[in-house]
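Case study 2.
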Amino acid sequence: MADELAVVPVAHVVGGRVEPTDDYWGGTRAVIRIDGNRFTEGAVVGLEAFSHIEVVFRFHLTDPSDLHPEPRRPRDNPDWPAGGIFAHRNMRRQNWIGVSRCRLLHIDGLDLHVEDLDAVDGTPVLDIKPWFSEMGPRGDVHQPNWVTEMLTDYYAPTEQHPQA
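Prediction:
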């Protein structure tokens, strides 16, 4: 299962945050600039009808030596249980791939203006998809209590924490 996959970014994040942080992504605005050498405005026809998009991106600032496949505690908090790499959603991923769902504010040519995208300036975007409600989770969703505790301020407005 060591097949390699070459992926070329379709876009890059412009603006917004310059440094990844754990919290206070609420209200963060950025532009997803689609590669105009590979795509025309025809690529985004119809996308303006959607309120949200799903963005697949590469954690390009992650130190490759900072992988922890063994169980570890979220944010190193001793009050939260250790979990393996697939029980976390942080940037320490085997393939450094992140997925985010954000608001699509408007489209200007090949620039997608978004809010609440938790990716930083310069992030390579691998794919962009409209969010379909029908493609969300089906059935009851459950998660451990520590997740809710940990993410209390994840999408809190940035102005609540000026250092973010």
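The longest strand covers residues 97-108.
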